[in-house]
Amino acid sequence: MFSRRFVFFSVFFVLLAATLISLVLSGKHPRPVAQGAGSLTLTLVGPLQYGATKLIQGAGSLWRIYFDSVRQARENELLRKELALAREKENEYLELAMANERLRSFLNFREGEDREVLVAEIVGKDPSPWFKTFIVNRGWRDGVRTGLPVVVPDGIVGQVIEVAGKYSKVLLVTDRMSGVDSLVQRTRARGVVKGSGASFCSFSYALRRYDIAEGDVVVSSGLDGIYPKGLRIGWVDGVVRGDEGIFQDVMIQPFVDFERIEEVMILLLPDEEEADDMESQEEPLS
Q: Can you give the residue ranges of the Rod shape-determining protein MreC beta-barrel core domain (predicted)?
């Protein structure tokens, strides 16, 4: 009728209750107990008391372990949050340090430049594979006009082709529509650096008789009316002199890493030139 487990626990609790009652009564009315009866009582009650004591101690240990686990879990969560916050702060400090280093190089460049320099941040890039342009956060309100050269300390980036109130579009020297009148710094051989639509440029209209070698530095000539003379563009990465034609094929690798730059410098016009240019300003970006 009753399961073994039920019977076992029933007997256990009955004996435990009897033991507790016996202890209470013996504490209130202490009297001598016969040796045989005392031995029998200890024999029966002793294991039960021992088991009850262990059970209570085990329960207490479990509770302590549980509360310790909860406390450690909370501490671990707090430590994880503090570690994440510390890493975020470290990353912010690293970004600030790198930005300061870039701006320091910009300041060094400005010291040797006669024209006023406006620092701008790149806020967008053309995703199209056919055009090499990006957007900067400076516009005609900051004095930016179309045709202004855009540079970084490493060299020429491109020129401004569209202007809005707060933003401008820059055409990179690697775009197919770009061209910079240039010189080979070592031999003064003249040509035009044209964009290829990829990561390199070509040095066009370089006569075959010109002495041009790999590693030569190419700079702006200042004759195109856009870029000041002597700005670095790139180095000669390959030269091919064919058997026919009057020009040689020269490939230029730009000094500027266009995938990594984040800020640029716009070379503004002198005040008198800016006043004349205001009248011919193109329509702002839509």
A: 122-267
